[in-house]
Write a structure and sequence with these properties.
Helix content is about 40%, strand content about 15%. The protein is α/β, with parallel strands linked by helices and about 180 residues long. It has a single domain (about 5-165), classed as Rossmann fold (3-Layer(aba) Sandwich). It starts with 5 loop residues before the first strand and ends in a 20-residue tail after the last strand.
Length: about 180
C-alpha cells in the first residue's frame, strides 16, 4: 500500500469488530503484516483463536475489563485508564517499529468516548502513524475530531438484536 487511510466502524449495531476482521483477512490474504489490538474486551473469543493461526497477525490486548465504567470505583477506573492508555502506547510502539500494513484498534473509539483513553493521544497516533499503515478504529460514539480525521466512516445501526429478547451471546456467533 502506498497511502494508509483511516477507517472508523461505529454505531450501536452488531458487526463493527466483524467488519474489521474481514479487512484483516483481506490484507492477510495479500501477504500483509497486521496488528490487531483489542481495547475494553477481555473474554476469549473465537476470532482471537482464528487470528492466532495467521502468522502475519500480531494480537495485543489490554487487561480484561470485568465491569462497566459506571460500576467502577474511582481507583478501578483510574487503573483501567492507565491500562488502556498503556495499550495505546504499545500500539504506537509496534507501528513505529514494525510498520504494519494494517492496524486494527478494536473498541478504541469506545475507550475514548468513555474517557478511558485521552482523545488527544488517539489523534496524535493517527496523525503520526507510518504513512502506508491503514488504521481501523471500531466502537460507539466517535467524537467529531475523530470523524474529521477519518477517510472512511461506516455506521452499523441496530435494527433488531436477539439480546433485546434476552438471548445471551452465543459461542461462535457473538463470542
Amino acid at each position: 500500500m502506498d497511502t494508509g487511510l483511516i477507517h472508523i466502524y461505529c454505531g450501536d449495531g452488531k458487526g463493527k469488530t466483524t467488519a474489521s476482521l474481514g479487512l484483516v483477512l483481506r490484507c492477510a490474504g495479500r501477504g500483509g503484516k497486521i496488528l490487531f489490538a483489542q481495547f475494553l474486551k477481555g473474554r476469549p473469543t473465537g476470532e482471537l483463536e482464528s487470528l492466532k493461526a495467521l502468522p502475519q497477525v500480531t494480537v495485543l490486548r489490554g487487561k480484561a475489563i470485568l465491569k462497566f465504567t459506571f460500576q467502577m470505583t474511582d481507583a478501578e477506573k483510574q487503573a483501567t485508564c492507565e491500562a488502556q492508555t498503556a495499550l495505546l502506547q504499545k500500539v504506537r510502539d509496534f507501528c513505529e517499529m514494525h510498520h504494519p500494513d494494517l492496524a486494527v484498534c478494536d473498541e478504541l473509539v469506545g475507550a475514548c468516548a468513555l474517557g478511558l483513553v485521552p482523545e488527544e493521544q488517539v489523534l496524535d497516533f493517527l496523525k503520526d502513524k507510518p504513512a502506508h499503515t491503514e488504521v481501523v478504529l471500531t466502537g460507539r460514539d466517535p467524537s467529531p475530531a475523530l470523524l474529521d480525521l477519518a477517510d472512511y466512516v461506516s455506521e452499523i445501526k441496530k435494527i433488531k438484536h436477539p439480546f433485546d429478547r434476552g438471548l445471551a451471546a452465543r459461542i461462535g456467533i457473538e463470542e
